[in-house]
Write a structure and sequence with these properties.
two-stranded antiparallel sheet, elongated, 4 strands, 3% strand, 11 helices, mainly alpha, 292 residues
């Protein structure tokens, strides 16, 4: 008996982790983690308690702390963090494609964008203001929002998640067929632009094929541009003539893409603004040439 007692006393503290761990309740956590506990009652995770995310705390309390005795997110790899959060959040449809999203493939997971205990933002437990979080990786997009013509994200009128789902999307990026832009569809299966620009939706009797096939990005820069109306080119006719060159034998009537008539002198400024006459350029219910 004496030898057995000596052996038990000689065991290192980590041996306790091999014994069944027990739940001790959140009150035990506030003894050491008072800074977290002080405002935790305001947190949506409060109903799950500390051990809902960090696992049983019995061994952690017995060892007087240490990351090895608790589920510590700071010591976990990206896949482990994702698996832990999805134990509860996998039921949300907005996160249904998160495992295949571009963020997850780049090892950007929940804890990179969310601060569960001490979030400075009023919504979604973000680690920073939403635009600043996105800009920390997407520097080239930040530069586009500094252009003279832009969507007003910096001013707070809209935000990135109005058009994008950072957790992953099933929607394809129009014109490319990929889903890497994480776009959020509008009206179930259409471009996010139509959430605001509903008058451009249709359906129209006479559709502009480019709008249906390529989508808005065929002519517009979605974030910001140096050109009016977020156009990809500064002069309207140069954009239109990228397609309207008379080439090809495709389309609904096998006539290809129409070119401008001989009466249109492209050196005359009045003909360089195609939309002065073809005002219903997104689609028309009255005229196949999109005139008034």
């Amino acid at each position: 008996m004496k030898q057995t007692a000596i052996l038990l006393l000689a065991l290192p503290f980590w041996a306790a982790a091999q014994t069944p761990n027990k739940f001790v309740g959140g009150d035990a956590c506030k003894v050491c983690h008072s800074d977290v506990w002080f405002n935790f009652y305001k947190n949506p995770h409060f109903k799950t308690g500390c051990e809902g995310c960090h696992g049983p705390g019995g061994n952690h309390v017995a060892a007087h702390g240490g990351k090895a005795t608790i589920r510590a997110f700071s010591a976990m790899g990206p896949e482990q963090v994702l698996d832990t959060c999805l134990e509860c959040h996998s039921k949300d449809m907005s996160r249904a494609n998160i495992r295949r999203s571009e963020h997850t493939e780049a090892d950007v997971v929940c804890s990179n964008c969310h601060s569960i205990h001490k979030s400075p933002t009023p919504k979604f437990l973000l680690a920073n203001r939403q635009k600043d979080l996105c800009y920390s990786c997407h520097a080239s997009i930040r530069a586009q929002f500094e252009m003279p013509v832009k969507h007003r994200v910096n001013e707070g009128v809209i935000q990135c998640t109005d058009c994008h789902n950072p957790h992953g999307s099933f929607a394809a990026t129009w014109g490319t067929g990929s889903s890497s832009a994480l776009v959020t569809t509008a009206l179930d299966n259409e471009e996010p632009c139509l959430k605001c620009h509903i008058d451009k939706r249709g359906p129209f009797v006479y559709e502009h094929a480019s709008v249906r096939v390529e989508g808005c990005e065929g002519c517009h820069m979605p974030h910001g541009s140096t050109n009016a109306k977020l156009l990809r080119r500064p002069v309207t006719f140069t954009l239109c003539l990228e397609c309207h060159n008379g080439a090809g034998s495709f389309g609904r009537e096998n006539t290809g893409v129409f070119t401008q008539s001989a009466s249109h002198n492209m050196l005359d400024p009045k003909y360089q603004k195609c939309t002065l006459c073809h005002v219903r350029i997104h689609g028309s219910n009255a005229d196949p040439m999109f005139l008034r």
